[in-house]
């Protein structure tokens, strides 16, 4: 499933559908995820939750030489092999732009398709920047 996003427009923190200001972040974003992201490089986090919404495991995927994060099959295996019922994806954009790139849209669509085939729900994909985060769910892209 390919995800589509409206044509690019400048980000000013208020016009981006799906943006959550840092002061309005929930406990998972604020207390669990935000601290995981270094300021100088991109990192991807996969958080697996059981059927009751309890955190089971966190997988960290570092950016490569090109700065982009990939999800190694071993990361999926460790997460799904423990019986995760839902997965939350999150990564950061050190550039400060919360707007999802074409690569972000493609990776989210691929992850959603993969997880759907094994009856696991992708609950959201969050993109963290210093002043808040973008939510694919809130932007109705999932």
From TrEMBL:
Q: Where is the RadC-like JAB domain?
A: 31-139
Q: Does the keyword Signal apply?
A: no
SUPFAM superfamilies given in the database record: JAB1/MPN domain
Cross-referenced Pfam families: RadC
Source domain of life: Bacteria
Alphabetically list the UniProt keywords.
Hydrolase, Metalloprotease, Protease
Molecular-function GO term, any one: metallopeptidase activity
Signal sequence span is none
The cross-references to PROSITE patterns, in alphabetical order and at most eight, read: UPF0758 (PS01302)
Name this polypeptide is given: DNA repair protein RadC
């Amino acid at each position: 499933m390919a995800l589509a996003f409206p044509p690019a427009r400048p980000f000013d923190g208020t016009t981006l559908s799906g943006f959550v200001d840092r002061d309005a972040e929930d406990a998972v974003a604020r207390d669990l995820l935000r601290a995981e992201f270094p300021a100088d490089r991109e990192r991807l986090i996969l958080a697996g939750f059981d059927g009751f919404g309890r955190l089971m495991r966190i997988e960290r995927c570092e950016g490569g030489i090109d700065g982009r994060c990939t999800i190694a099959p071993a990361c999926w295996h460790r997460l799904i092999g423990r019986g995760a019922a839902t997965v939350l994806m999150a990564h950061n954009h050190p550039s400060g732009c919360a707007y999802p790139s074409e690569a972000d849209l493609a990776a989210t669509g691929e992850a959603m398709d993969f997880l759907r085939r094994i009856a696991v729900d992708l609950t959201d994909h969050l993109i963290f920047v210093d002043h808040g985060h973008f939510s694919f769910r809130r932007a109705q892209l999932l």
